[in-house]
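Most newcomers find our protein records easier to grasp once they have seen one. Read left to right, the backbone structure tokens trace the chain's path through space. Once this layout is familiar, the rest of the handout is easier to follow. The record below serves as our worked example for the rest of this section:


***
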Amino acid sequence: MPYIVALSGGIASGKSTIANLFAQLGVPIIDADVIARQVVQIGTEAYKLIVKHFSQEILLPNNELDRSQLREIIFNNDHERLWLNNLLHPIIQEQTQIQIAQQTAAYVIWVVPLLVENNLHNFADRVLMVDTPEQLQLERLIQRDNIDKSLAQKMISSQISSKKRLTYADDIIVNNGDLTSLTAQVNKLHQQYLNNFNIKNG
């Protein structure tokens, strides 16, 4: 079993950029967001339940889920967001464990946006948090998802505060948009995690 490093942080904090830097060092990446998209593909059990719950209105012309419409609904309705989380969380977690068990590398980076909110930190050997200024987070989110400021703020405030999130961190990467700094931080942590794996496995 590889050493599991959970990478988390607020929405649009730069988790994907950091995961890519680890991937360039040959580290396997297990991404909960990627798995989340896989488990709701057309014909899956989760897909059928989502369509049944939200009706055919939630579909695009090609019958795939309309993710932007779904996002609009769940970030304006706590009850619907909770329903969707309760449906998808166990399925995503099961697939995650299968993928991690298949890895032969010394350690894996497990990207989990809602690590603390879904109480998943205990499944990791180590927690790596990304710390990003909220203003930068907001700007990135508006640009990335092509949404207005109001929805972006709702999406950020639906998660726990940065201050609380950082209390769960074993390691912190400061992401202020400087790629050179990010790369240096990742390279340093890479060596540390290889050492941690060796210590764990005696």
Observations:
- The chain has a mean pLDDT of 94.
- The first strand starts at residue 3 and ends at 9.
- DSSP finds nine helices and five strands in the chain.
- The first helix runs from residue 15 to 24.
